[in-house]
Amino acid sequence: MQLDIHGRPHRLYWEEAGSGIPLLCLHTAGADGRQFRALLNDSEITGRFRVVVFDMPWHGKSSPPEGWEREEYKLTTDAYVEQIVTVAQALGLDRPVAMGCSIGGRVVLELARRHPDLFRAVIGLQSSAFVQRYFDISYLHKPNVHGGEVCAAYCYGLVGPEAPAGHRWETLWHYMQGGPGVFMGDLHFYSIDGDVSDRLAEIDASRCPVYMLTGEYDYSCTPEASRATAAQIPGAELTVMQGLGHFPMSEDPARFRGYLMPVLERIAAMP
Amino acid sequence: MIGALQRLVNEDPALLRRGRWTSADMLLEIGDEGHVVAIRSGRIKAIPPVEMRVSRWDSAIRGTAEAWAEFWKPVPKPRHHDLIALIREGKMRFEGDLDMLMANLLYLKLVLEAPRRGAAA
Fold first, then answer.
1. Which residues form the domain of A32?
2. Which residue from A64, A156, A248, A255 lies 20 to 30 Å from A168 (Cα-Cα)?
């Protein structure tokens, strides 16, 4: 689809399956919507939810905007929120559930804060208010280091150690296919611009319920970080997912499903 | 664990192919012990123990003995299952030629995880 985001024309790719309550899915930094392949193919979910997945600008099969060759990609909170709201409106999603992972898990907190009437609930996967930078990420975009290889290497250990090999390596393949500097540009939001620490109290979970699911093996957004965040949002509910890492829906869809279904049940039962 | 590393790597054709452009002398520090893992075209040529006060290497991966012991368990505990996780925990360090370490990071992670697979077998 063709959309204006931040006043610039964009060509965005999206996929959807099912009908019912709109469930808008947001992929992680440096990856794309294929991370939600299992959800799109789960008839028990698509029987009741319209599952919508889009590739962010610069990611997957979506293009960067014209003129990209002269700029450095850096994701900001405002740009991220705007693209999600714009996509939801363009696809006619009526008060969708927003479910995002990692940077997506962060931005759903911002969606709940800014737009509690546009979203009926948010689900934050690997979600926390902020993650301090803990590694020199300039290596993710250097001409003497293969970007795809190093992005996958970086993410390799963010997958839980017992994830099925097929799903682990498919998750890493998405990282190997990212555009140059895109993962690094997303991390600008994750570790610099997207700090919501001092705005958590402004989230009203009674207007827009906040569910959080965090994998125990994620050393980037740790269960401790999610606990600290959930504690500052009255009404937010956190579950720590045993054995899972930073990419639950992609690295081990079957195990993740066991944690997601009870949340979807509760959302489906909302008046 | 370190004793089995050479065999585990050299018997793994996928790992040898992944590392076919990798040649470096990498200091592996395990607590008070040091070994130089001599990698030539992805194959481990030798892993001699070294006197750490006087040693020569291209890159170093230094970890506490406790960090490596946990890392090499078949299923390590959270935040101990990955080299970068251990760096974030303050229990591991990368030093020296970082371009070499980062350009070969996936290969090196798989090499250093090989004893874990050996332990599980």
1. 2-268
2. A64
How far is the alpha carbon of A148 from chain B, nearest alpha carbon, in Å?
Answer: 10
Distance of alpha carbon A220 from alpha carbon B43, whole angstroms:
32
C-beta atoms of A139 and B79 within 8 A:
no
Give the whole-angstrom CA distance, residue A61 versus residue A178.
Answer: 10
Pair of tokens at residue A35: 């991370």
| CB < 8 Å from B in window 13-32 of A | none
CB contact under 8 A, B103 and A162: no
Q: How many domains does chain A have?
A: 1
- The residue-averaged pLDDT of B6-21 equals 96
d(CA A134, CA B39): 28
Band of the pLDDT at B50, cuts 50, 70, 90? confident
Tokens at residue B43, please?
């194959």
Q: Which of B75, B85, B103 sits opposite A144 (nearest CB)?
A: B103
Taking CB atoms and an 8 Å cutoff, what residues of chain B touch A157?
A: 81-85, 109
**Count of domains in chain B?**
1
| Average predicted confidence (pLDDT) for chain A | 97
SS3 B10: helix
CATH number for position B21? 3.30.1050.10
Note the pLDDT tens digit of each residue in A160-179. Answer: 999 999 999 999 999 999 99
Contact A134 B103 (CB under 8 A): no
Residue B55 pLDDT grade (very low, low, confident, very high; cuts 50, 70, 90): confident
User: Domain span at residue B57?
Assistant: 2-120
- pTM for the structure as a whole: 0.96
pLDDT, mean over chain B: 93
Give the C-alpha separation, A184 to A190, whole Å.
Answer: 10
Measured CA to CA, the distance from residue B48 to residue B5 in angstroms comes to 12
Is B102–A145 a contact, with Cβ atoms under 8 angstroms apart?
Answer: yes
- CATH number for position A36: 3.40.50.1820
Give tens-digit pLDDT for A10-59.
999 999 999 999 999 999 999 999 999 999 999 999 999 999 999 999 99
Closest approach of chain A CAs to the CA of B64, in angstroms?
A: 18
Tokens 């990798």 — which residue?
A: B22
Q: Compute the Cα dihedral for A194, A200, A205, A211 and give only its sign.
A: positive
Q: Are B82 and A219 in contact (CB < 8 Å)? A: yes
